[in-house]
Amino acid sequence: MPVYLRKNMTFTPPSLENIADLDENDFEFIDPDKLKDQVPQPYRLVNKIVDSVVEKAWSFISDIENKKTANLNKIRAPKYDCAVKLQSHEKATALTDSVDGRYVFIGLPNGIVVIDSLTQETVSTWDEEKVDIAHIKCHLIGVQTYLLVTIDEMGIAKLFIFSSEQIFLLKILNEQVQEPGATKIISTKCESSEEGDYIGIVLENTSSNEIWLELHRLPRDTWLREMETVVAELKALSQQQEEEAAMAAESTEDNSQVFTERKGSTTSIKIPSTLTIRERRGSSSNSLSPTPSPSGSPKPGTPPPLLTLTPGEKPNPKFTPPSLVLKIHPPQPITGSTSSSVMSACQKVDSGEVIGTGQHHIITSTHLEQRDSMFEQQHENMMKYLPAEDKQNEEIMQPTFHFVTSSRLTPVGLEQPSQTGRPTTVIVWWTGESNLRQYSLLKQSKDFDHKADIVWPFCSTITCSTTSSCGIYLAVGLRSGNVVLWDRYLGIEKGVIGVSSEYSIKQVQFLDPSISSEDMTDYPPYKTSSSAWLLIQTSDNSQYVYNTSLNTLVVLYTVNENNEEETVLSTVSGIPELLLVVTKDNSLLLKDVTNGQDVCELILPTSFDLTSPWEPIYSFGGGGQMLYVKGSSSSKDEEGAIIDESSLFVYQLRSFPSLDGYWKRPRNNDIKPVHSTVEQRVNALLKHRIAVQPQRKERLEKRWNMMQQELDIILQCQETAKKRTGFGHAYSYFDQPEENDN
């Protein structure tokens, strides 16, 4: 069968230029998501929005599930619900402990109560009607003599002294004038220096919303001497009345039973119970002898009669009042210059060699107004979105102040060697500003309104600040998330800690350096702590610990990073490694600051919660062995009315098994000396050099012996060289060639 074949049948491939571009629509079947028809634009946008919402919800749910899983796998800290309820003082409004851990001072709606921190026995009371104590703080100013600083609900600040189991009123700092239409001035803050040398009180005029800070010098040493006189007079008066009661009882021979009752009871004496001076176990008769001070208050020549008491009256001795030292007003907003001419304006402006507050300048108010109007015209369409100024609810500026000792930052001429170790300077900053001011407490002038000696500007608004216990370091927290650390002793900036770029600094606190396991650095002429530990908490409740060594500034670890909302209250007295924190679920935790782990959880009895959880009423006692906490509960009676109940609970921290390792841990609590004057430093260096003289002599003898050995080796090398060369003379380093005169 014939087959017809076409001749010359060849296939010519197309050139690259003739190949058509690939159409993406031809490959839709490759992607399964594109099998469906493409929806129009409005529905396509809705689809994208729904997908994004689902993805965000799914990620949020996944985070919650991961947190739940991590929480279930987390090792739970032991819970202790062994709180002991006190049968009295259930209406406590404020708590504080004595510095030495002997007593706990309780503020009540009608006075103050002092109890023993270990046995909870009432030691002394001070009663006054309609005095609801809202704040109380204790300072140790002598041997078993304490200064109490209180503020009641009416805004009245008072000073008390407690010694020999007696409480006496020292001074009402802002006593109100009981007249119709009189200006009411209340106190919003009252803080004293550590040893009670100075006190600062923030006063506010309720009618004009004016606020200012007053600093008073307290005659601490004079109060100690006056207190000795008062106690002696009370003892003598008590003994005299006891003798009179005994003589009256002896005259009644026919009623021996009444005599016995009067002799053993204090109700027969017509004086208040506060006159009964009880001798506590272990106390000595000279327990009130004050600590000698190198620069105390002048001793009065003839002390006035302190105590004039008639039977039936309450003891009210008169003490020396404090003296006003300084009055500080909040900074005024910067306004235009009020000078009438350019020459007068230039005279007010300084040379610019120092940093000031910026109040003195040559910019007129007209220029500032023109700039504001120009800004409003350029951004007229955006001005409507700005919030309206609410001057009625405007926040009043509050000051924060610290009493510090002299340092290299003290201006020349304000140093006083006699005030070494005592506060001579106050550091103040106001809310909402970025300047920190330093004032001297030693200036003597009739005008108490002084200008700041030093102004420290910062790049952001100040949110918090603190000073170390030794007074060397000053830490300032900023809204930008940075912490600036100053070394006041050397007068230099230690460094800037970049903590967070998203959150501001909420709280800074120096920790006890004894928690570090590092060895102390020997820096002649004395041992110096290698670091200062700084606890930092940001606005998102994350906690960080920084260690500032002698030369570097290093972050160690993060204690808590946005896992739980916690607020650090304070460190545990006696155990500086532990922090007392309160969580958002109204529970108390003891956390180890060295590793960030929860040590134990403190649980109140059923139906009781913390009173004001974010500012709970609590106090330590007995050097950290006891913890006093106020709890509140609410219930309904049969009629449906709400019944509020509050009680004071005590935790015996010393009995917790999880804390045994902390109590047994050795700590170095030696206070390292810091010499603040040149003479002290030179004397310490000379003393150290004399002490190491035998060691230096021994090293010198060893070196001379080594030099003799080295010389013998050199001579042996020379002899060996002579023998090898075979010449009569070998060149030596010690043989110098003779110079030819020609």
UniProtKB/TrEMBL annotation:
InterPro entries: NADH_UbQ_FeS_4_mit-like (IPR006885), WD40_repeat_dom_sf (IPR036322), WDR93_beta-prop (IPR049547). Residues 291-306 have a biased composition (Pro residues). It holds the Pfam family WDR93. Residues 254-276 have a biased composition (Polar residues). Residues 242-322 are annotated as: Disordered. GO terms for biological process: electron transport chain. This is WD repeat-containing protein 93. It comes from Patella caerulea (Rayed Mediterranean limpet).
